[in-house]
Write a structure and sequence with these properties.
- It is built from seven helices and no strands.
- With about 150 residues, the chain is mainly α.
- Helices cover about 70% and strands about 0% of the residues.
- The radius of gyration is 23 Å and the shape is flat.
Length: about 150
């Protein structure tokens, strides 16, 4: 008779292996991100959604979200960035040949920026775009200072 001499690892080893894996269970992901929003979604998903349709989703989410600073920052930045790109495309569309070249250059820049900002918001990062990020951040400083004055 031929016997099987293979020993299976104990559960302890498997448990430590699960902790080392890149792929996490959904319970573990949700446990790490307990901060919610007024919309009932986690803040990283809501922050990412602010960039989905530019200023439209930015305004909608900014209107509904009153407390979460992370989501409000990304919504404000999304509104500003998309309005700047909208204005640049509108103005460059009025210029005959040079405008077309500007649009061809702006389109991939805007697409890459859009993807990067959505991914950064999903990862929970406060990523600022040059002057726009500083402007969005100042909006909250004013609000915080206003609340402090009201309390005193």
């Amino acid at each position: 008779m031929v016997g099987n001499h293979i020993k299976l690892p104990e559960k302890k080893n498997l448990g430590s292996l699960e902790k080392q894996t890149v792929f996490k269970r959904t319970e573990e992901l949700n446990a790490g991100n307990s901060l919610g929003t007024s919309l009932g979604l986690s803040e990283n998903i809501t922050g990412s959604l602010t960039y989905l349709f530019g200023f439209i989703t930015g305004i909608i989410i900014l209107f509904f979200e009153k407390e979460n600073r992370f989501v409000r920052f990304h919504a404000t930045q999304s509104i500003c960035i998309s309005l700047i790109f909208f204005a640049l495309f509108t103005v460059s569309g009025m210029v005959p040949i040079v405008g077309w070249l500007v649009e061809v250059t702006l389109l991939p820049i805007g697409l890459v920026l859009w993807i990067i900002m959505m991914l950064n918001a999903y990862e929970g990062k406060y990523s600022k775009v040059l002057y726009v990020g500083n402007f969005a951040e100042k909006q909250f400083q004013r609000k915080i200072n206003k609340k402090k004055l009201e309390v005193n």
